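Page 37, continued from 36.
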């Protein structure tokens, strides 16, 4: 299984690891099949809707670490609408790809962001256009059951 240099870099030196106190939104998702868990923290500017900071913590595999690290880098400085476009595919592209058996790991990062945004919207009593209720277990989204 070959990993790109970018994946190796983000795995060895993950960006934005940690937590944000009094975060605007926090989201936790897991994958029941592999047992990995990820938590994402967002600090969102109330007036502009811009994501000022993003941090994550994970009990996850190397690919989950690398994709979360890249995902936090991609959403920082973006508006909520732009952050919704940071899909697992976008994260994988930014990392120059992932081996096929590791593609599902990138769903943790995407869904953890959605979950943190959902939490923010609930706290604020607002609706975020285009954001669907996130799942707690990303293995529900995975159509490739054979690859675990
Ligand atoms: Fe579980 Fe990668 S094996 S997220």
């Amino acid at each position: 299984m070959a990993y790109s240099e970018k994946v190796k870099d983000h795995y060895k030196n993950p960006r934005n690891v940690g937590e944000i106190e009094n975060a605007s939104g926090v989201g936790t998702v897991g994958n029941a099949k592999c047992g990995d868990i990820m938590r994402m923290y967002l600090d969102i500017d109330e007036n502009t809707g811009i994501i000022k900071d993003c941090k994550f913590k994970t009990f996850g595999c190397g690919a989950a670490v690398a994709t979360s690290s890249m995902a936090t880098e991609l959403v920082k400085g973006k508006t909520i609408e732009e952050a919704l476009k940071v899909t697992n595919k976008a994260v994988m592209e930014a990392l120059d790809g992932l081996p096929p058996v590791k593609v599902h790991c990138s769903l943790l990062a995407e869904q953890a962001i959605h979950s943190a945004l959902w939490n923010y919207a609930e706290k604020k009593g607002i609706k975020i256009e285009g954001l669907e209720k996130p799942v707690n277990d990303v293995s529900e989204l995975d159509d490739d059951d054979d690859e675990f």
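Helices lie at 5-12, 62-75, 80-83, 88-94, 105-124. Flag for discussion at group meeting. The radius of gyration is 14 Å.
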